Amino acid sequence: MTAYHFIAIMSHYHKGTRVGWHYASTEKLDKEVIDTFFKKVEKKCGEIQFGIHKLSTESVSWRSVVKKDRFFHDVSVTDNMETFIEYVSSDQELSATDVAKFVLTVIPSSHLKLQKLLYYCYAEFLERTGQKLFKEPIVAYKYGPVVESVFRKFKIHGSSIIDYQEDESFILSTEEIATTPSFIKVVSSEHGIAALDCILSVLDDYGASDPFDLVEKTHQKGSPWDRVYKPGANSIITDDLITQYHSYAR
Description:
Elements: E1 3-12, E2 17-25, H1 31-45, E3 51-57, H2 62-68, E4 75-78, H3 81-91, H4 96-106, H5 111-129, E5 139-141, E6 144-146, H6 148-154, E7 170-172, E8 177-179, H7 181-187, H8 192-206, H9 211-218, H10 224-228, H11 239-249
Parallel strand pairs: 2-4
Antiparallel strand pairs: 1-2, 1-3, 5-6, 7-8
Helix pairs in contact: 1-3, 4-5, 4-7, 5-8, 5-9, 5-11, 7-8
């Protein structure tokens, strides 16, 4: 028996692995099924770059694929189209930690400064697009706006410069340029180019600033932080407050 396989593979940055959609048949592969797959992906996720593979084995099982070519041995696959699309969609969402990691690859910063840069990245993106750069709320701490998930991850560094390095790199083959996973994560997110532009714009404006100058700036009278801060309350700084203030500030 001959079985035919169609495999779409992409890197899943949150899972830290490769994920794939596997379609197999003992008949010739149905073009309509494959076309439906691409249409559903585009509708849910926009334009996505996949690694596409077609091959034949003696069985429709995934094991037979791995047996034929070890290239596929570490791919987490599903034959459920909707499940795979959900994987792709979820990986397009930026987290505050994703943005923080990218910021640190560009400008090594203390935790205090990192939090202020994150806030201004979020505010810049929100003002330009009306969308959230990441879903985690920004709250008012004593020294300014804070994303608590990033606070928990990096608080161990105290006031020291965070020594963050990414162990691996991607090669953009057309230009043979090495780039980092955090950069790829930003540009491959749902609003990738806009997100990248906003982040780099903020780093250009504030990257050389002293952390406490940024604290003072976020503490200005009438700022979103100033309007909600209560000691120990960790009050959420809403998008409406951020938009109103930063639109006026310009």
